[in-house]
Design a protein that fits this description.
354 residues, alpha/beta, eight-stranded mixed β-sheet, seven-stranded mixed β-sheet, 11 helices, 19 strands
Length: 354
């Protein structure tokens, strides 16, 4: 009997070691030409954790680290394990709960039980949900109080700068209360939007703030109610990351959002297809490493891409050339690409969405 228990213990230990070996870590690559990255040779890394239908990101620059969201309550151990495996990481300068929904703040206690933190940011400091009470309890154990930042506030993360852009209003919809952060490192800019939806996006655009970014963390897991045209054209991201779970109950990402991302020319990375995603900036450009499917096409055009599109000068809608709703010949204008049509002020017709 003792021998069986010994073998069981050995097998359990082996399983635990194997699981730990699979925990992703942030690894900053060396420049191919042998030069150091910009901004003092530190580099900025953003690890988009695969926490299913939820958000969680770890940003590191120099000796500083910031956790933005922590997934659901069930992701608490995953977040803790990832943090515990990061080389040289012994504290978090900032922990951010973008808004009061469990799929963003539920796993944060796991982070606070793993590492000490200097600041805890959120758009609210009270919420009746049990997960939020657990978050407050974990924060109290470190004598941390929630800080509610205001638009225009800035702080440093290593040699990167983080600016709070939103929320701009006291929204009734919790998703729109998301803290919106612009992270600038050298010549590169990363925009983190929580679950912000179209109303808050519109307010940001109309405020006149500079939204131009190289990398966009897509709002609300790729929901069709986020990533509006007016917002995406203000951001014009080269890259976009969508944090969503495989075969999730919400159908995220929605094709409406994916279509609009195609129109602005963003290359899309997705946790549901590629697992953990590591973005790295050397201050000049951003490169990506994924846990799997590095080169997979994550945002293919539905039905293929036609050779051209036809716009209706009256309705300001554009159509595929085989659409049953084509306008009369005298009202037609030709566009070579969807991007050209959208940039000219045209929207896809109902039949031609996406």
């Amino acid at each position: 009997m003792k021998q069986k228990r010994l073998w069981a213990a050995v097998l359990l230990l082996a399983a635990l070691l194997a699981a730990c070996a699979q925990v992703p870590t942030v690894s900053l690559p060396v420049e191919e030409d042998g030069t150091e990255p910009a901004e003092g040779g530190e580099g900025l890394s953003i690890l988009f954790l695969d926490v299913g239908q939820a958000d969680s990101m770890l940003l590191r620059c120099g000796d500083d680290a910031m956790l933005v969201d922590g997934g659901n309550v069930g992701d608490s151990n995953t977040v803790a394990a990832v943090l515990g495996k990061q080389e040289g990481l012994d504290r978090l300068e900032y922990v951010v709960c973008t808004h009061a929904h469990e799929d963003h703040g539920g796993g944060i206690p796991g982070a606070l039980h793993t590492l000490p933190a200097d600041h805890l940011l959120a758009p609210v400091d009270t919420c009746d949900s049990r997960y939020f009470q657990n978050l407050l309890k974990a924060a109290a154990e470190q004598d941390l109080a929630i800080e509610i930042p205001a638009p225009g506030d800035t702080f440093s993360l290593g040699t990167a700068t983080v600016e709070v852009l939103g929320p701009l209003e006291d929204y009734s919809e919790t998703n729109n209360t998301s803290l919106v952060l612009m992270v600038t490192y050298g010549d590169t800019r990363i925009l983190l939007t929580g679950d912000m939806e179209a109303d808050a996006e519109k307010d940001l655009v109309e405020s006149g703030c500079d939204l131009d970014a190289d990398l966009l963390k897509v709002g609300h897991h790729g929901s069709g109610g986020s990533s509006s045209y007016v917002f995406l054209w203000a951001v014009t991201p080269e890259y976009a990351v969508i944090q969503c779970g495989a075969d999730n109950d919400y159908g995220h990402p929605h094709e409406e959002a994916m279509s609009r991302l195609r129109d602005v020319g963003a290359k899309v990375y997705r946790n549901d297809l590629q697992g953990d995603i590591l973005a790295y900036s050397d201050g000049k450009s951003i490169t990506f490493t994924t846990a799997r499917n590095q080169d997979v096409e994550t945002n293919p055009a539905a039905g293929g891409v036609p050779a051209y599109y036809i716009g209706n000068t009256n309705s300001k809608k554009f159509h595929r050339p085989d659409c049953s709703g084509l306008p009369n010949t005298e009202n037609r204008v030709r566009f070579d690409t969807r991007t050209e049509a959208v940039a000219s002020g045209y929207d896809p017709c109902g039949i031609c969405k996406p």
